[in-house]
Amino acid sequence: MNQNIALNILHVEDDVADAMIIEKLIKEQQDPFYNYNITLVQTLGEALCKLSGPEHYNVILLDLNLPDGKGVDNIDALKTMSSDIPVVVVSGTSDESIFLQALSKGAQEYIVKEHNTKYIIKQVIQSSIFRKRVEVELSKRAYSDSLTGLPNRAFFEHAAQKMLHQAQRLKRKDALMFIDLNEFKQINDTYGHEAGNTILEEAAIRLKKTLRTSDLIARYAGDEFVVYMDSGKEPLTEEICQHVAEKIVKEIEKPIRLDDGNEVNISLSIGIAIFPDAGQTLDILLKKSDEAMYEAKKDGDKKYSIIGRTDARITSDNIKKILPEPSNKNSPEKTILIVDDNKADRILYKKMLSPAKYGVLEATSLREAERILEEVEPDCVLLGYSLPDGTGVDLLHKYKKLGRELNSAVVMVTGHENRETAIEAMKAGSKDYISKNEIDKERFVHILSNAIEKHQLERDLKSYQIELERSNSELSDFAHTVAHDLKAPMRKIFMFCQMLEEQKNTIPDEQINNYIERMSISSSRMQDLIDNLLSYSRIKNDKEVKEPTSLNKMVEEITDSLDVWLKSHKAKIVKENLPEWSVYSVRMQQLLTNLITNAVKYRSPDRDPVVVVSADIDDGGCHITVRDNGMGIPHEHLSKIFTPFYRLHAADDIEGSGLGLPICQKIAEKHGGKISVQSDEGKGSVFTISFPREVSLDKRQVS
């Protein structure tokens, strides 16, 4: 009987002649120890399908030049499917740089085809399998607890950190559980350390039995265990955490039979910290769950305590978002959601997408895809036609029926060429259609890029239309208000003219002079309104050029020009630390003049006005502040004061057109900046104009 060990080899090679040579070299001579079973596939996609199936392979022989995924990145794709299987690169090139790249990607060995002999290739296969087993075993020993077989503290913190990052990206609500066996030292002292070990082993078994396979369980230290619970397929609420804690308590507190026949009853305390409510880093969650555990321990009747409550929607636990942290400057430019229940196809699609340009989200069903789309807006949805819970077209029809807009480009992909399906998909809102039989990397990326660009153009056009409608509506409202505000002084002038005409022979000269004065005031207001309207309309399109300007000197000039008026109101203008900055000097002077005169006009009746103009420069640019001690602005009016023609006081009480602050806002926006206000009624207001950093000489001239 042949007692040789079977070695199953997955050979990934597109050149049939090379594959036959390799197989001949391996099988040419009888091996006294091994039987070699070789499975040949000619594409990376086929290899991934094989690895996702029931067959077990001891080693992978990999040619780097494959039609659907050339280069050393093939190693990454294979290791994603099965990291425990050694990969031996069998290449036609002896380029040392390729050799080093392959090893850095995780290949166990690299051999050149023309240098192979049957002895060398067999030796490489066997040594690769042996070294990979040693590597896996050492990894397990380094990261697992020798007593319970659970992951140890080091592995838990490493793995939990990754799970937490995923929760942050997907906006999931996960939880960290800290479990302590009460009075464990007393059990050790009473029954001995062997009994203590038995209890820890049994506790680990019961924990694994109670929790889901997707939960990360570890022995943290001594008699302490930790569990990272991901959100799973349903929202993680406080009630679910309570339910899990109660199941654990019920299971672990069952009597444990020791080797000597004695039964021991143990109790435990559980602390749970819900992310992100209880904290947003692993260290904080560990600390909070530990605190919650001690809180439960203080109360003899209380088995668990929970910090952080949530009932928010959760995305499925098997959704993977492969994106760098936001701080990463090399973050992908676009995000693709792949909706396909075929794991091998998903891996193939990811392989064809450059990680530098595309971040990838995955869903295996329509329901899962909907959950993701509730949380994020990918640039493109690569939507499989046939899915476990319906067709891709069903999803598009559902969005239309609900009157919801899918803010992503959709590309339908199916396993067969069908014109009717393509037409149906395009009618439902798909931007393009791909048949799996015709996919190659260049065409695949081209179709997705085109779909994203086309969708963006459509969105831009729609945004433009919406903005145009908004602008037209705003213009209509503006014209209505202008007409109203212009008619008011004109009506007054017309009324006083009529009164003069009717009463010219009967009223005294004093009354006539009063009428004339009122007509003069009304005409002056109308002139101011027209001037401000012209100014407001010209700000955006005037041809003034930015130039370095001393803001300190500008405020001096404004103060000098208003000297008589300021003295009549006993107003004091203070300038502090004003720099030289690149501005539209005429418009900037208009802005500062408006703010200074407003501060004086809206002065408090019980104190002389003081206006302080200062500036602060940071990485964001220049922030100019105009602070006054005037009457202030009621909080309910703060959000409206930059609206054209919006006035807090009647024109007869405080002079103004209602365009001063809107003009200031337009000028700030012309500089690429913004204006904001903070105010306390009765105490004064602070207006801040923030200009972005462009050309700044930052020569402060303080006097």
Task: Write a brief caption for the model.
This protein has 703 residues and is α/β, with parallel strands linked by helices. The protein is built from 20 helices and 27 strands.
Number of helices: 20
Structural class: alpha/beta
Regions with little confidence, pLDDT below 50 for 5+ residues: 310-329, 695-703
Q: Could you give the order of strands across the largest sheet?
A: 13-15-14-16-19-20
Indicate the mean pLDDT. 79
The total count of strands amounts to: 27
CA radius of gyration is 38 Å
Largest sheet: 6 strands, mixed
Helix-residue proportion: 40-55%
Distance between the termini: 104 Å
Strand content: 15-25%
Write down the overall geometry: elongated
Please specify the SSE layout and strand pairing.
Elements: E1 5-12, H1 16-27, E2 34-41, H2 44-52, E3 59-62, H3 73-81, E4 87-91, H4 96-105, E5 109-112, H5 118-143, H6 153-170, E6 175-181, H7 184-191, H8 193-210, E7 216-221, E8 224-229, H9 238-252, E9 256-257, E10 263-264, E11 268-274, H10 282-298, E12 304-307, E13 321-322, E14 334-339, H11 343-352, E15 358-363, H12 366-375, E16 380-384, E17 386-387, E18 390-391, H13 392-401, E19 409-414, H14 419-428, E20 432-435, H15 441-503, H16 509-538, E21 547-550, H17 551-561, H18 563-568, E22 572-576, E23 580-583, H19 585-601, E24 610-618, E25 621-628, H20 660-670, E26 674-680, E27 684-692
Parallel strand pairs: 1-2, 1-3, 3-4, 4-5, 11-12, 14-15, 14-16, 16-19, 19-20, 22-24
Antiparallel strand pairs: 6-8, 6-11, 7-8, 9-10, 13-15, 17-18, 21-23, 24-25, 25-27, 26-27
